[in-house]
Amino acid sequence: MANFDNGNSGPLARASAKGTVKWFNATKGFGFVTMEDGADAFCHASALAAQGVTNLLQGSTIVCDLANSPRGLQVVTVHSVDASTAEAPAPRKPRDEGGYGGGGDRFGGGGRGGGHRGGGDRFGGGDRFGGGGDRFGGGDRFGGNDRFSGGGGYRDRDSGPSGPMVEGKVKFFNDQKGFGFVMPDNGSGDIYMHASALRRSGVQVVEPEQRIRYSTRQGNKGVEVDKVELI
């Protein structure tokens, strides 16, 4: 707690002055009050003794006595506190429950549809298919400033010829991230599908479990969907 002695603050500079709590840290035991004329006054926790409180909410209106100190105006006694003018605490952001890519499991936090901005998992940030520095995330093969995203653009010259059309179904597709995966009917491994494949094929949107016919081609780092037809 800061070392300020209200008892040695000298004669009052202002009596029963009104001000608004700028901020107050109950742990440190002090804060500041903005007076009606715009001046800031230091407020030590000891000045609250008459009110029997140990904390002041930001935005509360107080009536207090002020004295001049070597550090400027200082509240020496708080006569009243009106907490009805206090600012409401900022609401906590809800956890993102949608998309693919939260931490903890294969597709997201605690389940298939965890937050798509999460990390440490298969499709989230900082992992195989998620955020920066990974295989399919930002700053990489399929993410931002790269081959398939903004600033890079899709380059057909980097890919091989398209193969025959085969059937499968959509495993998932994340519109926000612009990619997803297809499950082939032959039971082979999942195939990466970027939004550019949908655009080339004139397909606006695909849904999980949707049946499709598609062709593939060899990219620089793996097989990917080239063209898509809805069944």
Give an overview in words:
With 231 residues, this protein is mainly beta. It has three domains: 9-85, Nucleic acid-binding proteins (OB fold (Dihydrolipoamide Acetyltransferase, E2P), Beta Barrel); 96-153, no CATH class; 158-230, Beta Barrel (OB fold (Dihydrolipoamide Acetyltransferase, E2P)), CATH 2.40.50.140. Helices cover 3% and strands 35% of the residues. The protein is built from one helix and ten strands, in the order ββββββββαββ. The chain has one helix at residues 195-201; strands spanning 12-25, 30-35, 40-44, 61-69, 72-82, 166-174, 179-184, 191-194, 211-218, 223-230. The strands form two sheets. A five-stranded mixed barrel has the order 1-2-3-5-4. A five-stranded antiparallel sheet has the order 8-7-6-9-10. The longest helix is centred in the C-terminal third of the chain and has 7 residues, at 195-201. It is rod-shaped, with a radius of gyration of 31 Å. The N and C termini lie far apart (70 Å). The model is unreliable at 1-8 and 97-157 (pLDDT under 50).
Main traits of this protein?
mainly beta; OB fold (Dihydrolipoamide Acetyltransferase, E2P); 5-stranded antiparallel sheet; 35% strand
